[in-house]
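Known limitations

Files may contain more than one protein. Parsers should not assume a single record per file. Below, a two-record file is shown to illustrate correct handling: read the sequence, read the token line, then continue until end of file.
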Amino acid sequence: MATHLTEEEQIESLKRWWSENGKFTVIVVLAAIAGYFGWQAWTKHQVQQKQEASSLYQSMLDSSTLAPGETLDEDKYNRAISLGKQLQEGFSGSYYSVAGALMMAKLDVEKGSLDSAITYLEWAKKNNDDAELDIVIDPRLARLYVAKEKFDEALALVAKAPKPAAVSSYAELRGDIYAAKGDSAKSSESYQLALSSLSDQQSNRRRFIEMKLSEQAVSSSSVAEAE
């Protein structure tokens, strides 16, 4: 009899627990199920977005790829730019949108449209979060700033390398900028840093940096003699 009552008590206890907690349990289970399917849907959407962006970028590459001796005609240029802008508008912040902006800048440099190229590179810089791409964007944009005699903006871009492997190339570019600005002392200092920061894999650049450093030494001597 005691065992029977214990079973009844257990059943009543279960009923009371379900009455008090059953709705919450159902909500938790449903939320977990919804979260799982929501995650699945989000993941699928991300994959689709990446595939669409990749397809657009590939079409952009196809439009701008030229055979040896061929020049980019206006139709191909306009198509490539149109595809690049679609990447900017629909997939902002993605690798492909930034790569598309780099491609548009390259095409405009080849056309001599430096202001437009700068705009694309500034957009790429603002929307990029990949240090590897910064190593591509910063020097290209800095060189265009130098072409427009915006030396301070150029120096700010390459003031610090985003990765240790880029310390030498960034220092060399600072040397180029200071040379263009007419500051031989700082140019020489930057080239010396570029030389001291060269890795074994970058040793092929040593001769060219040494030539630049020698040119600045000659320039500094000429200035001293003139004074």
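...continuing to the second record:
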Amino acid sequence: MQKKSRFTLLTMLLLSCLFTASPFMGSAWASDKEAIVATVRSLTLQDVAIIEKHAQSGDVKAQTVLGMTYALGKATSQNYTEAAKWYRKAAEQGFTVAQYELGVAYDNGKGLKKNPTEAAKWYRKAAEQGFVEAQTNLGYAYEQGQGVKRDYAESIKWYQKAAEKGSLDAQFNLGLIYVTGKGVPPDMVSAYMWFSLVASDGDPQAMRNVAQLKQRMTPEQVAQARNKLTEWQQKNPKPVAPPLRPEESEPMISL
């Protein structure tokens, strides 16, 4: 008797997306990396064979999932070189998640020779499409002069973009910039605001920084910083996820 293939719910959802012809460019997938990772962790060896078939046909989503499968070593042997190969195929077609992951591969030297210039190049491509992690990493590259000429104004610009989308790393780094006065006059009020945003998420280092800054600030400066914080939070409210229905309780990839 012929055995029928049996796939998990996540795999079925993924494959249904792969069979659907649709553009995967731009920032539409910029927030879906966690969903991709969750799907990769659920795959079987049989699933990977099917995904590879779609990757070979040029599907950027399948190529990215396959790259991450090799990077994480799920349902197949870990192979950073293969991961980078598939990330590149999708990245060259403009897929933001793959562009970011290819930048990370160049940054860390996993599967590719370490190359800060190439890392910054691919971070920029994803950052320009709105990928938050890429914006943060590009800001760091400009701050440190890694792969690009050091430029604090550019660093602040990219940190700001990521910070406005909720990146705690970008918010923390902006706090450091305003404390140290990198490319801007030292500004304890702005530093207090950025560290307070991160501290409100429970970060212990940010909490310590807020406490230390408060000791160096006048009551008027603290009040000004808190007013600035309130204004920023009102302008940039944290997104609230709607409650999940029972059938949506598992992470999934959606278009």
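Parsers that stop after the first record will miss the second one. For reference, the second record is described as follows. Residues 219-235 form the longest helix (17 residues).
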